[in-house]
Amino acid sequence: xxxxxxxxxxxxxxxxxxxxxxxxxxxxxxxxxxxxxxxxxxxxxxxxxxxxxxxxxxxxxxxxxxxxxxxxxxxxxxxxxxxxxxxxxxxxxxxxxxxxxxxxxxxxxxxxxxxxxxxxxxxxxxxxxxxxxxxxxxxxxxxxxxxxxxxxxxxxxxxxxxxxxxxxxxxxxxxxxxxxxxxxxxxxxxxxxxxxxxxxxxxxxxxxxxxxxxxxxxxx
Length: 220
Hints:
Number of strands: 5
Mean pLDDT: 91
Structural class: alpha+beta
Helix content: 25-40%
Shape: extended
Distance between the termini: 45 Å
Order of helices and strands: HEEEHEEHHH
Radius of gyration: 27 Å
Number of helices: 5
Protein backbone atom coordinates (compact mmCIF):
# COMPACT_ATOMS: atom_id res chain seq x y z
CA UNK A 1 0.00 0.00 0.00
CA UNK A 2 1.20 3.53 -0.67
CA UNK A 3 -0.11 7.07 -0.49
CA UNK A 4 0.65 9.74 -3.10
CA UNK A 5 0.20 13.51 -2.96
CA UNK A 6 -0.10 15.05 -6.41
CA UNK A 7 -0.95 18.51 -7.73
CA UNK A 8 -3.99 18.75 -9.98
CA UNK A 9 -5.24 21.59 -12.13
CA UNK A 10 -7.87 23.67 -10.36
CA UNK A 11 -11.36 24.08 -11.75
CA UNK A 12 -11.52 27.57 -13.25
CA UNK A 13 -14.86 29.08 -14.14
CA UNK A 14 -14.40 31.96 -16.55
CA UNK A 15 -17.09 34.58 -16.18
CA UNK A 16 -17.68 37.53 -18.50
CA UNK A 17 -14.36 36.84 -20.23
CA UNK A 18 -15.43 38.46 -23.49
CA UNK A 19 -16.51 41.62 -21.70
CA UNK A 20 -13.01 42.44 -20.42
CA UNK A 21 -11.70 45.40 -22.36
CA UNK A 22 -8.30 46.99 -21.82
CA UNK A 23 -8.11 50.22 -23.84
CA UNK A 24 -4.96 50.75 -25.84
CA UNK A 25 -3.05 53.94 -25.08
CA UNK A 26 -1.68 55.93 -27.97
CA UNK A 27 2.07 55.46 -28.33
CA UNK A 28 4.07 58.50 -29.44
CA UNK A 29 7.70 59.59 -29.40
CA UNK A 30 8.53 63.22 -28.69
CA UNK A 31 11.47 65.21 -30.00
CA UNK A 32 12.77 65.56 -26.44
CA UNK A 33 12.85 61.77 -26.02
CA UNK A 34 14.88 61.40 -29.21
CA UNK A 35 17.25 64.16 -28.04
CA UNK A 36 17.65 62.46 -24.64
CA UNK A 37 18.63 59.14 -26.23
CA UNK A 38 21.19 60.85 -28.47
CA UNK A 39 22.58 62.81 -25.52
CA UNK A 40 23.01 59.57 -23.54
CA UNK A 41 24.82 58.00 -26.50
CA UNK A 42 27.20 60.96 -26.59
CA UNK A 43 27.79 60.69 -22.83
CA UNK A 44 28.60 56.98 -23.14
CA UNK A 45 31.33 57.84 -25.68
CA UNK A 46 32.61 60.96 -23.95
CA UNK A 47 36.27 61.75 -23.28
CA UNK A 48 37.49 63.34 -20.05
CA UNK A 49 40.06 66.05 -19.43
CA UNK A 50 41.44 66.94 -16.02
CA UNK A 51 40.87 70.59 -15.11
CA UNK A 52 42.44 72.92 -12.55
CA UNK A 53 39.28 74.58 -11.24
CA UNK A 54 36.43 74.03 -8.84
CA UNK A 55 34.13 71.10 -9.58
CA UNK A 56 30.94 71.89 -11.50
CA UNK A 57 27.79 69.94 -12.25
CA UNK A 58 28.50 67.47 -15.05
CA UNK A 59 32.15 66.93 -14.07
CA UNK A 60 33.51 63.49 -13.22
CA UNK A 61 34.92 63.75 -9.71
CA UNK A 62 36.99 61.24 -7.76
CA UNK A 63 36.47 61.56 -4.02
CA UNK A 64 37.56 59.96 -0.76
CA UNK A 65 35.34 60.56 2.25
CA UNK A 66 34.46 59.29 5.74
CA UNK A 67 31.27 59.80 7.75
CA UNK A 68 31.00 60.29 11.53
CA UNK A 69 28.08 60.49 13.94
CA UNK A 70 27.50 63.42 16.30
CA UNK A 71 29.83 61.81 18.88
CA UNK A 72 32.64 61.57 16.34
CA UNK A 73 32.39 57.81 15.87
CA UNK A 74 33.14 56.62 12.33
CA UNK A 75 30.02 55.19 10.68
CA UNK A 76 30.17 51.95 8.75
CA UNK A 77 28.89 52.35 5.20
CA UNK A 78 29.31 56.14 5.23
CA UNK A 79 32.72 56.29 3.59
CA UNK A 80 34.54 55.37 0.41
CA UNK A 81 38.05 55.57 -1.07
CA UNK A 82 38.71 56.86 -4.60
CA UNK A 83 34.99 57.03 -5.33
CA UNK A 84 34.21 58.26 -8.89
CA UNK A 85 30.87 59.90 -9.65
CA UNK A 86 29.29 62.51 -11.92
CA UNK A 87 28.58 65.65 -9.95
CA UNK A 88 24.96 66.78 -10.19
CA UNK A 89 23.43 63.40 -11.03
CA UNK A 90 22.45 62.70 -7.42
CA UNK A 91 24.42 59.48 -6.94
CA UNK A 92 25.60 60.62 -3.50
CA UNK A 93 22.50 62.66 -2.73
CA UNK A 94 21.85 66.33 -3.54
CA UNK A 95 22.71 67.65 -0.06
CA UNK A 96 26.05 65.83 -0.12
CA UNK A 97 26.95 66.82 -3.67
CA UNK A 98 26.19 70.53 -3.26
CA UNK A 99 29.05 70.61 -0.73
CA UNK A 100 31.45 69.25 -3.35
CA UNK A 101 30.62 71.96 -5.92
CA UNK A 102 33.52 74.40 -6.15
CA UNK A 103 36.11 72.06 -4.57
CA UNK A 104 39.41 71.67 -6.46
CA UNK A 105 41.80 68.73 -6.71
CA UNK A 106 43.63 68.16 -3.40
CA UNK A 107 41.14 70.23 -1.39
CA UNK A 108 39.73 68.94 1.92
CA UNK A 109 36.38 69.87 3.43
CA UNK A 110 34.34 69.03 6.54
CA UNK A 111 30.57 69.41 6.37
CA UNK A 112 27.44 67.97 7.94
CA UNK A 113 24.14 66.92 6.40
CA UNK A 114 20.90 65.45 7.72
CA UNK A 115 19.67 62.56 5.61
CA UNK A 116 16.03 62.72 4.49
CA UNK A 117 13.30 60.69 6.15
CA UNK A 118 12.83 58.52 3.06
CA UNK A 119 16.56 57.84 2.51
CA UNK A 120 17.07 54.44 0.85
CA UNK A 121 19.53 53.24 3.54
CA UNK A 122 17.20 53.15 6.55
CA UNK A 123 19.87 53.37 9.32
CA UNK A 124 20.84 56.81 7.99
CA UNK A 125 17.28 58.17 7.60
CA UNK A 126 16.90 61.50 9.49
CA UNK A 127 20.42 61.04 10.86
CA UNK A 128 22.93 63.89 11.07
CA UNK A 129 26.31 62.86 9.70
CA UNK A 130 29.56 64.82 9.55
CA UNK A 131 31.74 64.09 6.53
CA UNK A 132 35.45 64.60 5.93
CA UNK A 133 36.02 64.68 2.17
CA UNK A 134 39.02 65.07 -0.15
CA UNK A 135 38.77 65.67 -3.89
CA UNK A 136 41.32 63.56 -5.76
CA UNK A 137 40.54 64.70 -9.30
CA UNK A 138 38.15 66.85 -11.30
CA UNK A 139 37.57 66.03 -14.97
CA UNK A 140 35.54 67.90 -17.54
CA UNK A 141 33.34 65.79 -19.82
CA UNK A 142 33.99 66.31 -23.54
CA UNK A 143 31.07 65.12 -25.62
CA UNK A 144 31.70 63.93 -29.20
CA UNK A 145 30.26 66.02 -32.00
CA UNK A 146 27.29 64.77 -33.99
CA UNK A 147 29.07 63.70 -37.17
CA UNK A 148 28.69 60.83 -39.63
CA UNK A 149 31.75 59.23 -38.03
CA UNK A 150 30.08 59.34 -34.60
CA UNK A 151 26.86 57.91 -36.02
CA UNK A 152 28.85 55.09 -37.64
CA UNK A 153 30.31 54.13 -34.23
CA UNK A 154 26.74 53.84 -32.89
CA UNK A 155 24.96 52.00 -35.73
CA UNK A 156 27.85 50.57 -37.72
CA UNK A 157 26.91 52.46 -40.87
CA UNK A 158 27.17 56.01 -42.11
CA UNK A 159 24.03 58.14 -42.31
CA UNK A 160 23.01 61.76 -42.05
CA UNK A 161 21.80 63.36 -38.81
CA UNK A 162 18.15 63.41 -39.94
CA UNK A 163 18.29 59.69 -40.85
CA UNK A 164 19.99 58.99 -37.51
CA UNK A 165 17.23 60.78 -35.60
CA UNK A 166 14.58 58.92 -37.62
CA UNK A 167 16.25 55.61 -36.72
CA UNK A 168 16.25 56.53 -33.03
CA UNK A 169 12.58 57.52 -33.24
CA UNK A 170 11.73 54.20 -34.98
CA UNK A 171 13.52 52.17 -32.31
CA UNK A 172 11.88 54.13 -29.50
CA UNK A 173 8.44 53.66 -31.04
CA UNK A 174 9.00 49.90 -31.36
CA UNK A 175 10.19 49.69 -27.74
CA UNK A 176 7.25 51.71 -26.39
CA UNK A 177 4.75 49.74 -28.50
CA UNK A 178 6.03 46.46 -27.04
CA UNK A 179 5.80 47.91 -23.52
CA UNK A 180 2.22 49.05 -24.15
CA UNK A 181 1.26 45.58 -25.35
CA UNK A 182 2.86 44.07 -22.23
CA UNK A 183 0.97 46.55 -20.03
CA UNK A 184 -2.35 45.57 -21.61
CA UNK A 185 -1.59 41.87 -21.22
CA UNK A 186 -0.67 42.31 -17.55
CA UNK A 187 -3.80 44.38 -16.88
CA UNK A 188 -5.95 41.84 -18.72
CA UNK A 189 -4.69 38.93 -16.63
CA UNK A 190 -5.02 40.93 -13.40
CA UNK A 191 -8.66 41.70 -14.27
CA UNK A 192 -9.21 38.07 -15.26
CA UNK A 193 -7.82 36.77 -11.96
CA UNK A 194 -10.09 39.11 -10.01
CA UNK A 195 -13.13 37.86 -11.96
CA UNK A 196 -12.15 34.18 -11.79
CA UNK A 197 -10.40 33.43 -8.49
CA UNK A 198 -8.99 29.95 -7.94
CA UNK A 199 -6.61 28.14 -5.63
CA UNK A 200 -3.29 26.69 -6.69
CA UNK A 201 -1.65 23.73 -4.97
CA UNK A 202 1.39 24.62 -2.88
CA UNK A 203 3.24 21.89 -4.79
CA UNK A 204 2.83 23.92 -7.97
CA UNK A 205 3.78 27.28 -6.41
CA UNK A 206 6.80 25.74 -4.62
CA UNK A 207 8.00 24.24 -7.91
CA UNK A 208 7.62 27.60 -9.63
CA UNK A 209 9.65 29.28 -6.86
CA UNK A 210 12.40 26.67 -7.35
CA UNK A 211 12.39 27.35 -11.10
CA UNK A 212 12.69 31.13 -10.55
CA UNK A 213 15.56 30.65 -8.10
CA UNK A 214 17.35 28.42 -10.61
CA UNK A 215 16.88 31.01 -13.38
CA UNK A 216 18.24 33.81 -11.18
CA UNK A 217 21.23 31.67 -10.17
CA UNK A 218 22.03 30.90 -13.81
CA UNK A 219 21.72 34.60 -14.68
CA UNK A 220 24.32 35.44 -12.05
